[in-house]
């Protein structure tokens, strides 16, 4: 029986070369990855185009920090309430300009927050960007103890200013003084307006803080990892409204709170495994350089003294008096203290 000898054809030989060539890049890529893994810091120079999105952009880079934050405005500085557009008959009880001791502040509060950070590639997790996300904050403006909260802004009216030589007004004034007797000082003509103190609550505004900080982690691979940071913030304020019963008794005055930029200084510590997973954190942020201006317009108040209202009625005015406009500035020197549990992907 004749022996048949197998001779590979030209196409079979070519196919073998193609298959062999196709496996070489894969083997080379695996070898490069294994070699890079053995050399710290060398992986950044390896072609990662064959790796997935998670490995390239998320792993060892993205982290989140859900927690509870306490907003402390106790160091806030307030200007005195500045009145403008004061006209007769409001000028009988109050004048234009600043009212001594009439200051305001912002109420402290606790809110839920979520911090989001991203380790900058190529920095070995030493540098990262951080921000805080969450729903808009309801900021409460309150009157500080003193003139604005505890005293009437217009306690008395100087009826002496009504004596203009008009016989009708003089007769009305004389009748008022006669009816009230010792309640009015005949020399000064001062009469109680009956306008009460404003009390504690003034108004509210929704505030969306947009912030970003650059943080430095000197010991990214330690169990206890302190860090420092700094950056900017923009307080976007909207939907301001007056919540004070005295100011809204007659009508709803206009209320506007300006938005403002500022700066942030940050310090904190992460505690836990430096590997991916959960860890605890505590953080403090200082907000400075931000000044908001609260503006009230078309303020009207009600006189709770019928004799005074009747007297002004002779001039065509009633018990509801237009006071004018008011402005106040608050310099935000706030602290944000946060604690919670972080997670690094």
Automatic annotation (TrEMBL):
GO terms for cellular component: host outer membrane; outer membrane. The keyword Signal applies. InterPro entries: Enterovir_OMP, OMP/PagP_B-barrel, OMPW. Keywords: Signal. Residues 1-28 form the signal peptide. Coiled coil: none annotated. It comes from the Bacteria. It holds the Pfam family OmpW. Gene3D superfamilies: 2.40.160.20. This is Outer membrane protein OmpW. It comes from Salinisphaera shabanensis E1L3A. The lineage of its organism: Bacteria, Pseudomonadati, Pseudomonadota, Gammaproteobacteria, Salinisphaerales.
